[in-house]
Design goal:
The structure is a single chain. The protein has two domains: about 130 residues, P-loop containing nucleotide triphosphate hydrolases (Rossmann fold); about 70 residues, Helicase, Ruva Protein, domain 3, CATH 1.10.8.60. The chain is built from nine helices and five strands; from the N terminus they run H-E-H-E-H-E-H-E-H-E-H-H-H-H. Strands 2-3-4-1-5 form a five-stranded parallel β-sheet, sandwiched between helices. Helix 6 crosses helix 7. It has about 240 residues and is of the alpha/beta class.
């Protein structure tokens, strides 16, 4: 699977099977290509920690082990690159561009994205982009780009409820070969907040600590780690 420059790689854990769908069933079907209408332009917007990057990488991870058919570009990490990085991407069947709001207001980037849209359309390819806001709410310099991005189908990625977040934690744990007791998952959400991205990072840190100290994942162990992390109280 070809990747973009700078050594950025897809997360192996970012798959459709590991994504907790919640209220986003129609979106996931569209990205998987399971719906009857294969949309060639898909615009996904939503808040932080809702799974935008996970879903785009899941689209690309489907092609592992076979000829590369998809390309992933995270603009939050690559906005300093030359816009020419978009040149030639229409050779891919699917191009997934994450966080396009990071290049809004930059003329050369907007022109390059507009050109890529037209090339993908001519080649019958599929362009999938994400942002924090709907296309029409972003301050584009090129009005035509805003309209093009709105021509396809737009999905608002809905955040997970608490049950969904606990399921997401359980799936991340299972991917790491870790058993997450229900009471520990509930304790993490109660004591450490409900931001899913932060919870997933914390779970990874706990797993690494378990390997070092050869302990089981229990509430007492979590308390010890949180105190050492400066993020909890022993009560």
């Amino acid at each position: 699977m070809r990747q973009i420059p700078l050594g950025l790689k897809l997360r192996e854990s970012a798959t459709f099977d590991s994504f907790v769908v919640g209220e986003n069933g129609e979106l996931v079907m569209a990205l998987r290509g399971d719906d009857t209408a294969r949309h060639r332009m898909i615009y996904v917007w939503g808040g932080t920690a809702t799974g935008r990057s996970h879903l785009l990488q899941a689209v690309c991870n489907r092609g592992r082990g076979v000829a590369a058919t998809a390309f992933y570009l995270p603009l939050a990490e690559c906005a300093d690159l030359d816009p020419a990085v978009l040149n030639g991407l229409s050779s891919f069947a699917e191009v997934c561009i994450d966080d396009i709001d990071h290049i809004v207001g930059q003329t050369e980037w907007e022109q390059a994205l507009f050109g890529l849209y037209n090339e993908m359309h001519e080649c019958d390819g599929r362009l999938i982009v994400t942002a924090s806001l709907p296309a029409q709410d972003l301050p584009w310099l090129l009005p035509d780009l805003s309209s093009r991005l709105s021509w396809g189908v737009t999905y608002h990625l809905q955040p997970l409820d608490d049950i969904g977040k606990r399921e997401a934690l359980a799936r991340r744990a299972a991917h790491r070969g870790l058993e997450l007791p229900e009471e520990v998952g509930q304790y993490l959400m109660t004591r450490c907040g409900r931001d899913l991205a932060d919870l997933l990072v914390l779970l990874d840190e706990l797993d690494n600590s378990l390997l070092v100290f050869k302990r089981r994942l229990t509430i007492p162990f979590v308390k010890e780690c949180l105190i050492g992390r400066g993020g909890g109280r022993d009560d």
